[in-house]
Design brief:
about 250 residues; single chain; about 45% helix
């Protein structure tokens, strides 16, 4: 049983120490989904719907939903009849997910490190991760691990914060993140400091073409993306080559 970090330690930083990151998410698990909906002004539901459409779940598919948190995105995928594994590094998130959604027969929860996945090679038809890759301390290794556990010809879908393409909108978005979001987080979150880190991680995260290059560098092909909400979020997609030996 991992000892819980003291509250003062539950504020991760851009070093993304795994123990601190998981401890931070453990602490906010209970109110995480509600807080995200408030702070994103409801857009999180639109982003989740777009991701579900990109994954295109259906009965017979086996899907790995990484950084699944409490399983909100996983439930959406499981409604199709697909077999879904909701995985997250945070034990607190997984426990909350099991408490809320443990009765869904084709949905299972498992604690997992994205840089060292506890799954066999080629086990999944689709691997997806939403708003979690930027919290991994080695995203390049994580992208390679995602490729390893995906079958040949299988797909990758990444939904992640990105960079608005309009300078005017980028300025407005920056004002919201820097001035409005911290105040709102103090009101609605159980750990406002956690959202200070999340804000920093968004600013530090690369733009759409750079992430696409990282995905290609990890061995994926047919890499493409489309912007959501004027580039606040980008939806990247890729395919594992059918000739892949890994």
């Amino acid at each position: 049983m991992r000892p819980r970090l003291e509250r003062v330690s539950n504020r991760a930083d851009l070093g993304k120490d795994p123990q601190r990151v998981s401890g931070m998410f453990d602490q906010v698990a209970g109110g995480y989904d509600r807080t995200n909906t408030v702070l994103s002004l409801g857009n999180d539901r639109l982003w989740r719907a777009a991701t579900t459409r990109a994954v295109a779940p259906r009965r017979g598919l086996r899907i790995l939903d990484l950084a699944a948190g409490t399983g909100a995105s996983s439930v959406s995928l499981a409604h199709s009849g697909a077999e879904v594994v909701a995985a997250d590094f945070s034990a607190g998130m997984i426990a909350e997910g099991r408490r809320r959604h443990g009765g869904i027969p084709n949905l299972s929860f498992q604690q997992a490190d994205a840089t060292d996945l506890p799954f066999d090679d080629g086990m999944f038809d689709v691997v997806t991760i939403s708003f979690g890759l930027r919290n991994v301390n080695d995203p390049h290794r994580a992208l390679s691990e995602m490729r390893r556990v995906t079958r040949r010809g299988g797909r990758l879908v990444i939904c992640e914060f990105s960079h608005p393409t309009s300078k005017a909108f980028a300025a407005l978005y920056g004002f919201y993140n820097d001035r409005v979001l911290p105040l709102a987080a103090k009101i609605v979150s159980t750990n406002a400091e956690a959202y200070d880190y999340l804000n920093e991680s968004i600013r530090d995260w690369p733009d759409q073409p750079t992430l696409a290059a990282w995905i290609r560098g990890a061995g994926w092909t047919d890499v493409a993306w489309r912007d959501l909400s004027f580039g606040i979020v980008a939806l990247h997609r890729a395919v594992k080559p059918v000739t892949d030996a890994g």
